[in-house]
Amino acid sequence: MPVVTRIAPSPTGDPHVGTAYIGLFNFALAHQARDRGEEGKFILRIEDTDRNRYVESSEKRIFQMMQWLGLTPDESPLQGGPNGPYRQSERNDIYGEYARRLVESGHAYHAFETPEELSALREEAQREGRVIAVPSRDLDPAEAQRKVDVGEAAVIRLKVPREGETVVNDALRQPIVFQNREIDDKVLLKADGYPTYHLANVVDDRLMGVTHVVRAEEWITSTPIHVLLYEAFGWPQPVFAHMPLLRNADKSKISKRKNPTSVEWYMDQGFLPEAMLNFLATMGWTHPEGREIFDLAEFQRVFHLEDVTLGGPVFSLDKLKWMNGKYLREVLTEEEVAKRLHDYLASQKYDLPFDDYFRAVVRMMIPRMDVFSEFLEKTPYFWSEDYPVNEKAAKLIEEGRSFLPELAARLKNLPTFDQATTEPALRAFAEEKGLKPGKVMQPLRAAIAGTSESPGMFEMLDALGRERVVARVERAARG
What we know:
By secondary structure, the chain is mostly helical. It contains 20 helices and nine strands. Strands 3-4-7 form a three-stranded antiparallel sheet. The protein has a two-stranded parallel sheet with strand order 1-2. The radius of gyration is 31 Å and the shape is elongated. 35% of the residues are buried.
């Protein structure tokens, strides 16, 4: 059996982590089929029929998100393919044709109610605790067609059976039963000729050969409409699987009020795409060996759709940062971290030379950062003489001011200036002064870094070099 999956984001704003989450599982399913030697295809199409919410730049940003994550589709508006076009706004003629087929077969009808009339009908239905009853449903089809022919504005609505039930078979759940009397006659084609999500979604999935519809569980309530459409067209249904929604810590649906939801925010903060994919893979699924760190290839190898759990997965920024830090320290090599950090800084308009000094600073900071955006925040003293001195560091400098001038002279006159000489020299200096080593090291650290939190003292001295270290200690001694 071929496995053809898709994601169909709407270009209405920032590229959402939910799109990345659903995209990952669809990508993995399609590529699993390939790994088995079967047909597997992953499609990205753009659902841009809601022109009131359409944002022109959003489509490009969706493509950039998918490229950053490495979830490259086989067919899309960029790649093209045999089932295009891949923007719904370019497929209107197709939807109109299929909507008319449903009218002709008696599964849909033209409706002529005005917005004001519909509002009154909804209020009445709400008072009586039932779905809205649309008067146009009972119009003679010939009379309805005459009204359309003379130019009267009309939508096309699905004619939902008034008796019986519609069953949604979901790969992750028991069959879900909906009573037909509780399902509205949904609009399929609007008066402006644009389709609604329901019609466009089903027609596109059918024409593009989609076999597995893997999407967020918020679409469950729409699925009976889609099942009725498949039945009305006489088409076999795809496999439906509704993934659990990403949640905030309080179990509410993830929202930008409580968590950054734009993937661009994570890109700008310097998260690694591998860590983001790894983290998203653990949302509703657990590695069979209990492993928390694994790459995309490993996920494809061991993932089974039926193993998805439905408890609301919590999108924890702290957990994602922890996982990103694990990648920096345990998965990537030092050189890989340095190269990718340098590329990240360049993307943020920072022009630092990629040299041995940069590599040395990166080596010191790998244990001390979780995301790339923390690098310059935590290392201003490596790049400028105009670095801030925090309150705690200022107190430490004051405590050491009595010996800082002599310490500067001692460092200045060392025969060499590397870890092999600075460490014993500083320990000897502390012993001469009758001080514990920390009582010397802490004011020295504060003087050369402006903070009490920094990499190892002797690594830092080695990287900064004698000239800068001595100048900074002398400046601190002067106050």
